[in-house]
Amino acid sequence: MRRVAEIAASHADAVDKEGRFPTETIEALKRERLLGVAIPVEHGGEGLGTMRIADLIVQLGQACGSSAMIYAMHQIKTSSFVTHGGASDWHRAYMRRIADEQLLMASATTEAGIGGNLRNSICAVEVAGGRFTLTKEATVISYGNYADAILATARRAPDAASSDQVMVVIPADGDRTLERTSVWDTLGMRGTCSDGFHLVATGDARQIFPKPFSEIAAQSMLASSHIFWAATWFGIAADAFNRAQAFVKAAARKQPDAMPPGALRLAEAAALLQEMKGHLTAAIHRFEAAAGDDDALSSIGFAAEINALKVAASEKAGAVVRLAMLVNGILGYKNGTPFSVGRHLRDVTSAPVMISNDRILSNTATLMLMSRFDTGLGS
What confidence score (pLDDT) does residue 379 get? Predict the structure, then answer.
């Protein structure tokens, strides 16, 4: 990942300024065969666990926030194959393709008219004669024009309830059309190119995951999303902190007998960054300990803990970057200096609104009405 991160860093400002897809980073990830690292060894991958993948994301996040977010979202979708695709011949074969051909996975869970609630769908798959058809008005498909496959959610059938969903794999080399309906022109994370699309697809009904989407979301996608997003934000915050630390060290060298004015802010940022790291690693350990235990992964306590990770990481990342801005002063505010953190600030500003923290806290509040907070420390 070190070589990929160097390439990503060299193009990060251009990707941000031009709002373009980080082609150089994704090509480097493919060259280094880092897109199939989560695929089990028996299906051609490296079988890396959540901790090692999150560490790769953190490294990339320190170079380019958009590249790290794309890599994180790819890993989230790959985790659905790893956790829920083993019982399906079609999905096992596609896992081998991801590893062999280094395919990039994307997601289409949002939809016009559902109010941002990915656990509901308006569109539906229609299955007949072993084939499916799907038409979806996706308000956002990150890097949809560049992905090798899109994993789309939909109702199980036209007469199914909005929450009775499935997830279907739609390869770019299959029978599909993708018409852009809106352009991703945003404050930050500009390189994810998360445009809106009118998606129409047909294909083999076996492309639909055997498990209901409700189980996929609860048992793998929720935790993977919050962990890999948190890793992305931690990486961005860590790079902003590194720039602030370099600024303070430079000031200390100029006046060795005086404490630089930004030193206390730097210490405050270090404490927040350490809190982020501790929370993230604890959540990964918790997730890996529950692996394979569907009841544990679907429990109220686990969902509440993972929700807390997302909210806390998204808020602390912003706080760390803002402190770095205060430490670096005008050289942090200005673009193009070794201490610039404007791109970092704009990228982490997406964190609290990328699935709104208010929506997540509302879900946690509902869970808390049905359970008691676990005050045990696990001794």
Answer: 63
322-353 pLDDT, tens digit per residue, is: 999 999 999 999 999 999 999 999 999 999 99
d(CA 20, CA 288): 35
CA dihedral sign of residues 202, 206, 207, 211: positive
Beta bridge partners of 165: 155
CA distances from 336 to 5, 17, 89 (A): 18, 12, 51
Q: Which of 206, 209, 228 is nearest to 80 (CA)?
A: 209
Instruction: Measure the CA–CA gap between 360 and 358, rounded to whole angstroms.
Output: 5
Q: Which two tokens stand for residue 179?
A: 């018409």
DSSP class per residue in 248-311: HHHHHHHSTTS--TTHHHHHHHHHHHHHHHHHHHHHHHHHHHTTT-HHHHTSHHHHHHHHHHHH
Q: Contact, 79 vs 88, CB < 8 A?
A: no
Strand 105-108, strand 131-138: pairing: unpaired
Q: What tens digit of pLDDT does each residue of 259-293 get?
A: 888 999 999 999 999 999 999 999 999 899 888 78
The answer, as to whether pTM is greater than 0.70, is yes
Nearest Cα to Cα of residue 11 among 2, 23, 29: 23
How deeply is 267 buried, as exposed, middle or buried, from its count of CB atoms within 10 A (0-12, 13-18, 19+)? exposed
